[in-house]
Amino acid sequence: MWKPDRQSKKPLYEQISDHLERRISYGEFPPGSLLPSERKLAEQLGVNRSTVIMAFAELRSMGIIESRTGSGTRVSRTKWGAMPKHTPNWSRYAEGGSFLPNLPFMRRIREALNQHPSLIDFASGELSADLAPSDEITTLMNEHRYTSHLGYDNPQGYIPLRQALVSYLDKYRGIQTTESSVMITSGSQQSLYLITQCLLSPGDAVAIEDPSYCYSLPMFQSAGLRLFRLPVDQHGICPEDIRSLYKKHRIKMVFMNPNFQNPTGTVFSIERRKQLFDVASKLGLPIVEDDPFSLTAFEGAAPKPLKSMDSNGSILYIGSFSKIAASGLRIGWMVAPHSIVERLADARQQMDFGLSVIPQSVAAQFIKSSYFHPHLERLQIQLQFKRDLLIESLQKELPDLVKFITPQGGLHLWCKLLHEVHDGKLLEEAIKRGVVFVPGSVYGSDSGFVRFTFARPKTEEIAVGISRFAEALRALIVS
Amino acid sequence: MWKPDRQSKKPLYEQISDHLERRISYGEFPPGSLLPSERKLAEQLGVNRSTVIMAFAELRSMGIIESRTGSGTRVSRTKWGAMPKHTPNWSRYAEGGSFLPNLPFMRRIREALNQHPSLIDFASGELSADLAPSDEITTLMNEHRYTSHLGYDNPQGYIPLRQALVSYLDKYRGIQTTESSVMITSGSQQSLYLITQCLLSPGDAVAIEDPSYCYSLPMFQSAGLRLFRLPVDQHGICPEDIRSLYKKHRIKMVFMNPNFQNPTGTVFSIERRKQLFDVASKLGLPIVEDDPFSLTAFEGAAPKPLKSMDSNGSILYIGSFSKIAASGLRIGWMVAPHSIVERLADARQQMDFGLSVIPQSVAAQFIKSSYFHPHLERLQIQLQFKRDLLIESLQKELPDLVKFITPQGGLHLWCKLLHEVHDGKLLEEAIKRGVVFVPGSVYGSDSGFVRFTFARPKTEEIAVGISRFAEALRALIVS
Ligand SMILES: Cc1ncc(COP(=O)(O)O)c(C=O)c1O
Ligand SMILES: Cc1ncc(COP(=O)(O)O)c(C=O)c1O
């Protein structure tokens, strides 16, 4: 992001007007388009609003922009030649298309983090830099040679990675499969996208957990699906609810995150798993199992995936490196019947022509390497340590104002607020104080919840972050 | 792909029945699903059909599979417990969804190449291994350190790569832009996908060149677009045709590949470019410029992109590394007004959460490195050499049967067949003789054309490949 140079002899406002003129002439802001407001631009560039007002005045005097009260500042049309020319109405195109934008809260959080990289981040559902195996990846890359063809890869994924995952799934997840049933994706996100786009049709009914990560994804609505809720309690969903949803709405698929569920941290109980398999096989209903967190289990063995007990073939299994290695790798996988893998691989070829071979080969080497197991053990200990820090801070700062169940794995803590506050206001108050979290309503549940990702902030930020959050919360409760 | 072990003491048919039993029990072929035919399996495993027949008999005797005449061999339902259980009807799911599968010819070619990796490949639109900068990429990766956070990246793309592309676009393509107008994608393929999904709505009319790469992409139909044709002659499309399509159908966007067009190799003439800008600005119509080939220009300067002359802001510009470096990198880019970039980045976050940071950072280093320019020069010379080999072979083998215009850049030669032959039959005859190409009808044009990609086969394969193709063609003309 460009910023004006405070050492330069050229006045700030002139640097800004030159910069804007350049961006306008490059077509970034076409004739007729709206510029950011003075307030917003001032914030982005880290200058006083009066400086931006002067820069705008400069551009206005050159006939490059026009302001009308109430409708903001726009790039002039007249400047661009005498002929009656028309730039495409780009903003109409940007609003067109049937694919829905992200939720406003999610966009607000991303915007805040972009603008203020120093915010303490309890919002991004990922590991902090020190938890990722960056050194191991660097070492593996340094040893690497590209002797083979760097051409279009098989859209189902790089074969050596599929082979490595077959052993990994057997060893770590108790899943027996073969490389032809494994498909590599750009993370669980793309697995979910492919399933909703290619296996379901607009109007189809599906069931998702409540609360659930899936609610935060407008892609379900973009695909025209009708969503029905399966309330999650301490032991996960109630399989009987699936049966009644099926009777009423003929649901076509169930989406679940059985182990250390996002956002609640719940593990689906053994008892209910049996009921689930029963219901699924009676109804011939496919279950999508999203399983990114199990290997983070803090103590004892990782909970098993449903897929490892799937004697009837009801489960589409989704895994990912994002939560156990690094989200920036963008490597996930699916285990599915052959006909499904073929269909999804064919479709994805048209969407992005498959993944880059480079991260796929790095990932294959990493899980086969002697680094992998020690990395997992270290990760579990460090995550547990961060969880404990978060809990200590919450107990110290907000003993009377929050309630939660201690998660035994995963990256998140799901926290009930004991006083009613407005989600959006709480977020803004928190951002003002230098901390972000995700409001619970994003996950489809009632307001009054907050998701804290303890994995993401640095260790030393956790206590400070919660103390800032506590200030924000108290400010709203008092007022 | 698993193959039986011919050294083993265990008979082949037993190895095969064990292997199939394993795949069935892992859920790859769920109860009730269809197995590949005996003929197909025999071909895949490289054994006699009789061996597969024996393996099937073995599985049948164990009650694992059932065959019924005329309806193939299926996995038994009964084997899987006495209870009335239902596996999801996976094949119905695989056929569901509104996203269309690839064209049959394209799937046939992919299948043939998977089954017989030794086929001489004039079909895949990419560089051969020796033309890609694999050594350079290996060196850059070996020097690399991941000190920064390997977390979820900005969905608009890795900032250092966007910065590197701003200089690249200025230096090599005469395009002035800023990093906030550049978006990184998984190749031109994903750029086209995002545009069709997010900026257009079902029912919208768009214009594409005829013939065109776009016809080979069912994604245009999957997005519900109505396609209208702009015939391409020696100088490209006629801009007046756009005006009349607009009048009749209110087309909302035009897709073009002005430089060394795929498949024809045509360069859009200067004369007509002026007319195009005139029409586009009069109508306020956006033009998508797909520009993957220009830097391959064999002699003289690379033709300029439309975007470099786009004073009115009508062009959405798409670039890619696939045709000038390596398609397996999966790195492409778009230059677009800010509102469009923001919209597409937001949508793509839901689709795949952005690209892996690793190939993005390798790509950034590569274009900034001193390797880049020499690589381009070497590539141009080698491509021209391969083109000349192809032309020589065609003139030697089929002087009386084909006609073509010599392309001055790009990876392809578009070849008219002077006798009428059936597209599908010609392809099968060619595959039988060990060579593949893409039938012209895939690009939406009349049959009677063939696209040969001279970049893809090894140098020493070109003459052999064309001699096999000539045999295939003559076999059909004689009979
Ligand atoms: C339950 C769940 N599924 C899927 C994802 C997407 O992760 P990725 O695409 O990085 O694998 C997330 C990330 O937050 C998640 O929490
Ligand atoms: C004209 C054109 N556009 C787009 C593509 C897609 O290329 P990529 O996604 O690898 O950049 C191709 C590849 O064949 C092409 O020829």
TrEMBL record, chains A, B:
What cofactor is this protein dependent on?
Answer: pyridoxal 5'-phosphate
UniProt entry keywords in alphabetical sequence:
Aminotransferase, DNA-binding, Pyridoxal phosphate, Transcription, Transcription regulation, Transferase
Stored Pfam families: Aminotran_1_2, GntR
Positions of the HTH gntR-type domain: 10-78
Q: Which InterPro entries does the protein's record reference? A: Aminotransferase_I/II_large (IPR004839), HTH_trans_reg/aminotransferase (IPR051446), PyrdxlP-dep_Trfase (IPR015424), PyrdxlP-dep_Trfase_major (IPR015421), PyrdxlP-dep_Trfase_small (IPR015422), Tscrpt_reg_HTH_GntR (IPR000524), WH-like_DNA-bd_sf (IPR036388), WH_DNA-bd_sf (IPR036390)
* UniProt GO MF annotations: transaminase activity
Similarity annotation: In the C-terminal section; belongs to the class-I pyridoxal-phosphate-dependent aminotransferase family.
Q: In its UniProt entry, what is this protein called?
A: PLP-dependent aminotransferase family protein
- Native organism taxonomy: Bacteria, Bacillati, Bacillota, Bacilli, Bacillales
